[in-house]
Specification:
It contains eight helices and four strands; from the N terminus they run ααββααααββαα. The protein has about 150 residues and is mainly α. The radius of gyration is 21 Å and the shape is globular.
Length: about 150
Amino acid sequence: MLKFNAVKRYAMIVLLLCALPALAESPLDDAEKRLSEVKVFAFGGIGFAGQTSKGEIDFRLVLSQPSQVALTVLEKLYATGNPQAKTYALFGIRKINSSRFKELLASAKASQEKVEVMRGCIMTDDFPRDLASQIGQGKWDTWFNNRS
């Protein structure tokens, strides 16, 4: 009887160890977490080397998901993320669901928070109301589409 219990325990340990990777967070979960506290809102090449920002890379991962999955992540980012995350979320929501974007415009335009924005090598602090208007007018589309 003792031998059977030891084998059973060993089997349980092996089974748990095999299941651990499945319990780990997915790349989408990781991207969502990083986006929620991203330091700058940026599309296109930034800095002297013209690199793609980490925020844009994570944003593109979210946007590559099926529309409903991406929209759920973006809604959560808009509700709980920092100002930069909310701006990425607003941009993504406009791409997926323009009527929902229009619903969120009022809250974005009322916000007094500052958003750290990087365009090329230039860093600025912008108001969400200005960025929301620019997003609504498609002024960020060129930056985003040129890196696709």
